[in-house]
Amino acid sequence: MDKLAIADREFNSRLLVGTGKFASCEIMAEALEKSGTEIVTVALRRVDIENKNDDMLRAINVKKYLLLPNTSGARDAEEAVRLSKLARAATGINWVKLEVTPDPYYLLPDPVETLKAAEILVKDGFIVLPYINADPVLAKRLEDAGTATVMPLASPIGSKQGLRTRAALEIIIEQANVPVVVDAGLGLPSHAADAMEMGADAVLVNTAIATAAEPSRMATAFKLAVEAGRTAYKAGAAAAGKRASASSPLTGFLRDNKEEK
Amino acid sequence: MISTQKHPNEVKGSDVERALATPAGSYSLEKLLALISPAAEDYLEEMAQQARQLTIQRFGRTIRLYAPLYLSNYCINNCRYCGFNKENKSERRRLTIEQAVSEADVIASEGFRDILLVSSEDRKFISIDYLSELAGRLRGKFSSISIEVYQMTTKEYAKLFAAGIEGITLYQETYDRDIYRKYHPAGPKADYDHRLSAADSIAQAGMREIGIAVLLGLSDWRLEALALGEHAHYLMKRYWKSRVSFSFPRLRPAKNVDRTQFSFLSDKNLVQMIIALRLCFADSGLVLSTRESAELRDHLIEVGITKISAGSKTSPGGYSQPTNAVEQFEIDDTRSPAQVAEMIRAHGFEPVWKDWDIAFVKSCKSEE
């Protein structure tokens, strides 16, 4: 599979994995291993970022994975910026998955505050990966602001509903000059494959792996699905799917006329 | 109390089946009515399965842990079910800030990062300034600080929010006006409507979490559950940035409380209420204290409860030294926090000590 480039780094895997909702750190570590991921996102609210003995942080091998802190729980730009800076001060990591989700139920991202925070963080030297609703104009505004990716949602986080925002995702993918990582709502490997076939550069999965009966096997399934989807995309499957090939061509008569001559 | 087209006793099995066919986690009064009805008792297993699946989907295989820290049991109210009732001639105790910090140190040493400060209506001593100062002292040790004290104004809540307190638990106790009057004969808490406005004040102050509940055992739990659901729904629609969570305080024997006065709720109905609320509110925290037995708590984390306390001491000063001061209620689950965490793991869940960060507090210093 071709490599994924984000900012100045390259990754062999196009599957990003979240660390919430696992039954234990051991189960999480095994799932990360099986997923083949190289980017692992961690909620700053959930870990003691300054404590090297934090259970969850200890279970993530930082030599193997890029630890991508996220600002889950932030209600506005100010909170997200503050959390990001504290995380950078504690770890030296200047990557951040920007999440500004003022609504505590569906955790849908606030576009206004996300853009505001992204502008501040990019200026401050952060590599910003913003979680957004599937809004093509917002995606372009963030790209203009200098974010490293855009991360539009497929459906509400944790809902496992798959690509409910398909039409908007297609536009985002078509227009983007930065990697598009489809984040949130992918409930099955087939959803991930679907996103990759569509031309997404990567996907992020958490709930679907963490809450499966066997997380590590589900992690393997997502790994394979992402690879299959990417390979299919590169093989031109999407183009073939969009072209019509009628069994009774409307212009067939032209050929018939020609033959008569 | 609210009025519905039907009384819970009129709900039929077919109504319950229809409620169970709606998307798990969405609310309507009719749905909650069906799920808390006597007819729904025949569908408890199916409801429990749905509730478990939904909770795991929304919260993952995790259970949050917290500990209460009792600050004072001096009280100017005389709630007739409460051990802190001012007419109760027991030994009273209130902690100085230093003493409270020592208590918190014990709690922190047990692994807790989520603390609930509890006090009776002792506003003169446990003042807004006291709570602000204590929150400031605790911020280094705890990632989440919430309080369960007397009712305050929006302005006072806002001051506490700025000091790092992110959640408020405040129960209406009962939504039945007549029963409310009967149990709260005097003191500031006697005003039903004022009490009912508390959650609005809390949300308007920007608090992230609003904990609501009824004291189970005062009135018909089915009607109370309906009122609770309506209250929660109202709050969610109106204050979209605050999360509503539910607790299930079931009236327990306490000193000088006449046990014959109350209608204690059965385990079966407690389970039904928990499951019914989960099936109506997918993302609400459901909180259970050590009032309940170890055995029951072990089962309830499987069907929708997302946050539990452990190793609680419900009298001021109870963590650092044994005391004769009156408890608010008697503890049933007396296991240590470590034992409770082990139980959670044995059930295939991760005990979560930290799920918030003090960096969210505005006055918290950032890198530059």
Outline the structure in words.
The complex is a heterodimer of chains A (261) and B (368). Chain A has 261 residues and is an alpha/beta fold. Chain A contains eleven helices and ten strands. Chain A has a five-stranded parallel sheet with strand order 5-4-3-10-9. A three-stranded parallel sheet of chain A has the order 6-7-8. Chain A has a two-stranded antiparallel ribbon with strand order 1-2. Chain A is globular. The mean pLDDT of chain A is 89. By secondary structure, chain B is α/β, with parallel strands linked by helices. Chain B has a domain of 231 residues: Aldolase class I (TIM Barrel, Alpha-Beta Barrel). An eight-stranded parallel barrel of chain B has the order 1-2-3-4-5-6-7-8, surrounded by seven helices. The longest helix of chain B is centred in the middle third of the chain and has 18 residues. The radius of gyration of chain B is 20 Å and the shape is globular. At the A-B interface, helix 3 of A face helix 3 of B.
Largest chain interface and its two residue counts? A-B, 33 and 32 residues
Strand order, sheet with most strands of chain B:
1-2-3-4-5-6-7-8
- How many domains of chain A? 1
The CATH H-level homologous superfamily of one domain in chain B: Aldolase class I
- CATH homology-level superfamily of chain A: Aldolase class I
Helical segment count of chain B: 13
How far apart lie the N and C ends of chain A?
A: 52 Å
Gyration radius over CA of chain A = 20 Å
Mean pLDDT of chain A: 89
Oligomer: heterodimer
Instruction: Spell out the helices and strands of chain B N to C.
Output: HHHEHEHEHEHHHEHEHEHEHE
Which class do the helix and strand fractions of chain A yield? alpha/beta
CATH class of one domain in chain B: Alpha Beta
In CATH, the topology of chain A is named TIM Barrel
Give the overall shape of chain A. Answer: globular
Strand content of chain A: 5-15%
CATH architect. name of chain A: Alpha-Beta Barrel
The helix content of chain B, as a percent range, equals 25-40%
Mean pLDDT of chain B: 90
Shape-level CATH architecture of one domain in chain B: Alpha-Beta Barrel
